[in-house]
Amino acid sequence: MKSTNEILANEISAFILGKLKGLNTKSAKKLVKTVDGAAKEVVKKYAKLKKDEIEEKEKEAKKEAKKAKEKAEKAEKEKAKAAAKAAKDAKISLVTSSEEVSEKKTGKAAKAKKQAEEAAPAVESEATSTEEV
C-alpha cells in the first residue's frame, strides 16, 4: 500500500509540475519540495478516507448480519412456541372431546356459525307462517 501511495504522490507532483515552466533553479527546487510535500499530504488524506470507507462498509455488513441473525432467532422462537402450543393442544384433545377442542381453535368464527344456524330456522318458520295466511 505504501508503494501505491508513493506512486500516486509522484503522479500528482508530476502533473502539477508539468504545468509550471519558466522558473529559475532556486524557485524550482523550492516549488518541487512544496509540491511533493503537499502531494504526500493529499495522498495520506485520500488513503485515510478510503480506509474509513472500508471500515464503514464492514460495520454496515456486521449490522446487517446481526439483524438477520436476530430475525432468524425470532422466527425460530416463534416456531418453537407454535410447536409447543400444538403439542399442548394435542394432549388436550386426547383428554377432551373433539368438539370442545375444535371450538376452542376456531373461537369466534365457530360461535358466529352456530348463531347463524340457530337464527336461520327462526327465519324459515316466519316465512312459512306468512305463506299460510
From TrEMBL:
The biased composition feature labelled Basic and acidic residues covers 70-91
Q: Name the domain of life this protein comes from.
A: Bacteria
Spans of biased composition, class Low complexity? 118-133
Instruction: Report residue spans for region: Disordered.
Output: 56-133
The name on file for this protein is: Uncharacterized protein
Source taxonomy:
Bacteria, Pseudomonadati, Bacteroidota, Cytophagia, Cytophagales
